[in-house]
Amino acid sequence: MKDAAPTTIFLKDYTPFGWQVSDVHLTFRLAPTTTRVVSKIHFAPNAEARAQDFFLHGEQLKLIRAAIDGVDVTPELTAEGLRCAVPDGPFLWECEVEIAPAENTALEGLYMSNGMYCTQCEAEGFRKITYYPDRPDVMSVFTVRVEGDVPVLLSNGNPVGKGDGFAEWHDPWPKPAYLFALVAGDLVNFPGSFTTMGGRKVELNIWVRPGDEGKCAFGMEALKKSMKWDEDVYGREYDLDIFNIVAVDDFNMGAMENKGLNVFNSSAVLASPETSTDANFERIESIIAHEYFHNWTGNRITCRDWFQLCLKEGLTVFRDQQFTADVRSAPVARIENVAMLRGRQFPEDQGPLAHPVRPESFQEINNFYTATVYEKGAEVIGMLKTLVGDEAYGKALDLYFDRHDGDAATIEDWLKVFEDTTGRDLSQFKLWYSQAGTPRVTVTENWETEAPDQVRGGGRYTLTFTQSSPPTPGQEEKAPQVIPMAVGLLNPNGDEVVPTRVLEITEGTQSFSFDGLASRPVPSINRGFSAPVVLERESSPEERAFLLAHDSDPFNRWEASRLLARESLIAMITDNAGPDEAWLDGLQRLLRDRDLDPAYRAMMIGVPSDSELAQVLYERGVTPDPDAIYAAKETLAQVRAERWADLLPSLAAEGAVDDAYQPDAEQSGKRALGAAVLYLTTRLDGGKAAQAQFESADNMTLQLSALAQLVRAGKDEAALAAFEEQWRHDRLVMDKWFGLQVGATAPEKVVSRAETLTKHPAFDWKNPNRFRSVLGAMAMNHAGFHRKDGAGYRLLTDWLIRLDDLNPQTTARMCSTFQTWKRYDADRQALIRAQLERLRDKPKLSRDTGEMVARILGN
Ligand code: B3K
Ligand code: ZN
Prior knowledge:
Blueprint: E1 9-10, E2 19-29, E3 35-45, E4 54-57, E5 62-68, E6 71-72, E7 76-77, E8 81-84, E9 91-99, E10 109-113, E11 116-120, E12 140-147, E13 152-155, E14 158-163, E15 166-175, E16 182-185, E17 188-195, E18 201-208, H1 217-234, E19 242-248, E20 255-256, E21 261-265, H2 278-293, E22 302-303, H3 309-327, H4 330-349, E23 361-362, H5 371-388, H6 390-404, E24 408-409, H7 411-422, H8 431-434, E25 440-448, E26 459-468, E27 483-490, E28 496-505, E29 509-517, E30 522-525, E31 534-536, H9 541-550, H10 554-575, H11 581-591, H12 598-605, H13 610-619, H14 626-643, H15 648-655, H16 665-685, H17 688-696, H18 700-712, H19 717-727, H20 731-743, H21 747-757, H22 768-780, H23 782-785, H24 791-804, H25 808-815, H26 826-840, H27 847-857
Parallel strand pairs: 2-12, 18-19, 19-21, 22-24, 25-31
Antiparallel strand pairs: 1-23, 2-3, 3-9, 4-8, 5-6, 5-9, 7-8, 10-11, 11-16, 12-15, 13-16, 14-15, 17-18, 20-21, 25-26, 26-29, 27-28, 27-30
The structure holds (3S)-3,7-diaminoheptanoic acid (B3K) and zinc ion.
């Protein structure tokens, strides 16, 4: 339980810590409920800081002894830490505390997962391990001795000593406490090695529970690829003798970049063809890369304070996206990233949880590990790169690493390297870090066959952009931002007459002209999604179909398809119209084009999510009806299936893979096409093809996509039972089993199925993966969750109330499900409000959940 009256922390109040820490020595004597942590820390006054009390963070610690320069002291203890009188000059702080990792259900600090000790310190977990200035700008060299009755004892840095029941580690790189890690348990390693560009041979290990060794090979290859890529593309070399990854079953998020000892949710590292889908493999590859890339962007250069979180997260996401684009298909990766941004970040930016990429205040920092900080933070870096160009970006990054290695830096430092490299003034660009909300850009166009001042002959085409940003909590007025708008022009034959050019919009309204055109062009705007904005432009279905057929920019070609799908569905919902014929024909032509990557074609078949459609309706003043949205999508699927009946078998054949399973882009693209086809085929054959695929599948991708269609078709009883029988021993596969039958089923069954599954003996609700697999999947099933009688809201809240006592972080994160509540009708809003208030009023509400609920309710 955190404090009852939460305080708000402000960026403007930053002050440096009054002391510097030169070195930290920690000894852990591990025991499930009585672990002793002994610390010896050298403090010296920080000349740059103003005078202040000596305060160390510490929560839920039992203080055994504290001493300064060898003399016992009695500090003043509070719920947040301790205060103590200290000498004027340097001194040695010694302290012993007792903690109970086996009782730590919050999974923050030192805790236990299946008998294994592990830590999670970011953001503020180290204070649950010992008393310390637990802030990212206090960096120190750590030496750690771990004593315990288990075979493997790991910490950060290089191993320096080992014996019966103990191991010693030394990390030469000064680091903040949030990067500290310790893992101990009965583990086995999957070994590897990598020789760096400087010739340093690095030992690599993936540590897992015995039995999981067979699921490490892919992760190991991904790690080596990442190490090589960071050398080749960013010139960054690894800096220790060893790099360890550990798989942990109970983990609040994906993974954590602790120096030299990355801790991973087992779902984010363990993979095999039989148990993991193509999507799992791709996710694992990108998370391994992400955590590895943090070694430079996050660890060697860290954040001055938690408001600067995007400094490491936005940049590291940007880098992992570049990596994925390089090792897989760049257009497909870009579409996936934008779909994720629109699916997760846009709703955040458009609702009560909207906050700037660099927030200015928080109560609980864990609530700000958001899509805005991560994904929008990455988009901002992409825009910066677009604006300055690739070469200047490379130089600016070199300068950043040079100038700030070993620093706890700020967004100001980051922008300064770009200013110094290019001579540009980035003060207006900086608004991307401080203004919340998704900018809206409206476009109008003008065509003059004979413009008076034209030098060249031909016509002049003018695009006029107007930008505005709707108010967000605490920010009523917004100033115009710098928007790099990539535009290309096509002539009526479909040829590109003006290749991609980046227009730099800096004003509220701004025009750009193109001269010397033979005929009125068709514009392709925001190519590659060069700016994370909502583009508002009147365009006809014919024009979209034209771009669908001719745009040379693969992103905008997909975008044309997405808009056609969206508008067609909206018309079906609001006007009872049928699907747009021209679109279906255009799409059919495209699907037949064997020169197009199967993965790309699979994406073209995709349609906007129910939630996205609900948002569009809401913005147009129509109250979204989740059942009507669901029904329209079902109708569309049926119409497409019937209309394309002749095409589906040949597409299915293209989606078939004869070679041995590989999780690479090529094979997974084919399987994605196959899955998109199976979704339609099931409408025609009642599930025969899906059943056959389910029975013959020799990999999880095929098995699960078949099972999904059987669930969707309501013909899943036998298959679900067989799947459970086959996989009951594998917790990660069972997460899929739980998730799918709630996530893919018909709306009317969603809540009752979720409820039944919470009574299943394998529903271990204290495990975040399992909790999310049922309750998270329920919340993602739009029509099912938003049942008119509120049963979905009630069931989720029952469980959030229960989980909050144990694991505030995961509870708070799942509250964001309710962030879109204002979109819906008054009855649904009242039902959701009642649940949010019930959660708010529960006894001992955590600070994490309390802050989220208050923000969602709008106080
Ligand atoms: N830095 C961690 C996230 C920590 C979340 C703390 N609530 C993982 C990552 O972004 O790589
Ligand atoms: Zn990260």
